[in-house]
Specification:
The protein is α+β, with helices and mostly antiparallel strands. It is elongated. It folds into three domains: about 10-180 and about 290-315, no CATH class; about 180-285, Sandwich (Jelly Rolls); about 315-585, no CATH class. About 65% of the residues lie in helices and about 10% in strands.
């Protein structure tokens, strides 16, 4: 047997700040990678701008058709790949980002992201867009978002000297995309003969113990696995493989229970404990040497997709983009966003040191309270922005002046919704960063307060990573409420808008309870409960409370389904806004 010695795992020093800032380093480097990829896209756009014929396709509308068909083909291909990816086992990562039975929502969400890239390649390569790029990125909300990302990247890079062997984590990035599932050829294990025990047979296995994520062993006979040719020489506990009963192990069970040796220089021996020969199959799933390297990919993907989406808005519809950027710039010039961000940031920092008396589970309340506060602040800002930038412009006849120019009413509504979305995005970037820093530090603070051993940086990183999906769900919820507030702002004043949006918020979170309590009751009550569930968005889908209570990560299939759900209700809110605004008397 050939055995690879374990690769040393990234390990921070004992200094508490190192344990805290190592997760921040992962976050900052991921943002930096994303910004570098965006620069690479800009270089690609410049090169494509020199290609003759592309501008003609954009002018005659053919580019829209090409982008739509290309996105559809890519989506269908991806869905087919996921649906046909064999045997229903988790794919893409060693621990399984998702399983193949979740392919539907994952493929739809992935198609939407691929669509952003396709549309960006076709439309952001126009000379007009490249001429407007400087103003787009370095003025208004673009400047604030870029500054926030650059600041986080700088903080992460400044933490590099506290990280032990940071290059090991970066070198593990290619391993994420490598094949991580291997089934060894079937081994034939001889049985016992002449009433004597069968000898221990050496298996020809090649694996890296430090990268093992899960093991599955199957046999049609009862076998005994050891790390030595005899029981007297074994160093670890022998493992029994029952006939036709899979022996399954994963990293959460601990190295001591692994059926294969997990120390350097070991060999694997097997003994058949039955008379007939046995057929032994071994399947191993490996992970990168530094599994947290997935953070680089996830954060970089977020930066690239939202960066391209921001640019696509300007390239595809400059009129809508002008309205959106103007609305965002106008609201950011007011003191309210800054006041909200300061208050929420101070509250989150206070939660770190505030005892919740939860017997060692204060970090759960920190996550829940922090994300909820960010959601409330962003939603409040969204409703306020919708009322001031839509209703007040209509009442003050500013909208009449704007629409007297060659701007359609639908461009006005869509632009206002996008303006609210970018304001909400900026708030989540700033406040979400504060929340992640606080969550990463909380385990260290709790250990010091309880006189316990300091947690590893992996624990801090895991807590931080589990919070990111919750922030994404809260962002989606704010987008939905913000879109509805813009639609309502075409007809209702600030107070009425707040009242209706607050009612939607309450009903959206109470929808499952209302439907459940009305089931089997009076037909009229049951009818209205079903009507509410059909009309009002079910905001309980956007909650991370269940995952916090269970101390588990939110599955990516849930994130994908909520993204699709948000898109559907965002489109519905846009249509409602268009209907309400179409015959609105602006004079």
């Amino acid at each position: 047997m050939t055995f690879d010695f374990p690769v040393p795992v990234l390990a921070a020093a004992d200094f508490w700040m190192s344990k805290w800032l190592t997760p921040v380093w992962f976050l900052g480097v991921g943002i930096l990678i994303g910004l570098v990829l965006l620069i690479a896209f800009l270089v690609l756009f410049y090169v494509l701008s020199k290609v003759p014929g592309l501008e003609k396709l954009r002018r005659d509308g053919s580019a829209h058709t090409i982008a739509s068909i290309t996105t559809l083909l890519l989506g269908v291909s991806l869905a087919a790949y996921l649906a046909l990816s064999a045997d229903g086992k988790a794919i893409f990562t060693a621990d399984g980002i998702f399983a193949t039975d979740e392919w539907a929502m994952i493929s739809v969400a992935s198609t939407m992201m691929l669509g952003v890239i396709v549309w960006a390649v076709l439309f952001c390569s126009s000379p007009r867009f490249l001429g407007e790029l400087r103003a787009l990125l370095f003025e208004g909300v673009g400047r604030y978002m870029l500054s926030t990302l650059a600041g986080l990247a700088a903080i992460g890079l400044a933490s590099s000297f506290l990280v032990d062997k940071p290059m090991l984590a970066i070198q593990a990035i290619p391993e994420i995309f490598a094949r991580n599932d291997r089934t060894y050829p079937t081994f034939n294990i001889d049985g016992s003969k002449d009433d004597k025990e069968a000898p221990f047979q050496l298996l020809d296995l090649v694996y890296n113990a430090s990268k093992l994520s899960s093991i599955e062993i199957n046999s049609n006979r009862r076998l005994l696995l050891t790390d030595a040719p005899s029981i007297a020489e074994v160093r670890g506990a022998p493992q029994t493989v029952e006939a036709n009963v899979p022996l399954v192990w994963n990293t959460k069970m601990g190295a001591s229970l692994a059926p294969l040796p997990m120390f350097g220089g070991a060999e694997v021996f097997v003994q058949n404990q039955e008379i007939d020969s046995a057929q032994l199959t071994i399947r191993v799933v490996t992970a990168p040497a530094v599994r947290e390297s997935w953070t680089f990919v996830l954060v970089a993907t977020f930066v690239v997709i939202f960066g391209l989406l921001f640019m696509v808005m300007q390239a595809v519809s400059p009129k809508v983009s002008a309205i959106a950027l103007s609305a965002a710039k106008s609201e950011l010039s007011q003191p309210l966003p800054m006041i909200l961000m300061i208050i929420v940031s101070l509250a989150i920092l206070l939660f770190v040191f505030l005892p919740f008396h939860t017997l060692g589970e204060d970090i759960k309340l920190l996550k829940d309270c922090g994300v909820t506060l960010i959601l409330i602040a962003a939603t409040f800002q969204a409703v306020w922005s919708a009322s001031t930038s839509v209703n007040e412009e209509i009442e003050g006849r500013t909208a009449l002046t704007l629409l007297s120019k060659p701007i359609h009413r639908r461009s006005f509504i869509i632009g206002k919704i996008l303006g609210v979305v970018w304001i909400v995005m900026l708030m989540f970037l700033v406040l979400g960063s504060v929340e992640l820093l606080a969550v990463a530090y909380k385990p260290i603070y709790e250990a010091r307060e309880s006189s316990l051993d300091q947690p590893t940086w992996q624990v801090c990183h895991q807590e931080m990573l589990q919070t990111i999906p919750g922030l994404a769900l809260a962002f989606f919820q704010s987008v939905v409420l913000g879109a509805f507030s813009v639609a309502l702002g075409t007809r209702f004043s600030l107070l009425a808008n707040f009242t209706i949006c607050f009612s939607i918020y309450l009903l959206g979170h109470l929808t499952p309870t209302i439907v459940e309590s009305a089931a089997g009751g009076l037909p009229l009550v049951e009818f209205f409960s079903q009507l509410i569930s059909a009309v009002v968005p079910n905001l309980s889908h956007f909650s991370m409370e269940a995952s916090i209570d269970a101390d588990v990560s939110i599955p990516w299939s849930v994130i994908a389904s909520v993204l699709v759900y948000t898109t559907i209700y965002g489109v519905a809110a846009t249509l409602i806004g268009l209907l309400l605004f179409e015959d609105r008397d602006l004079a």
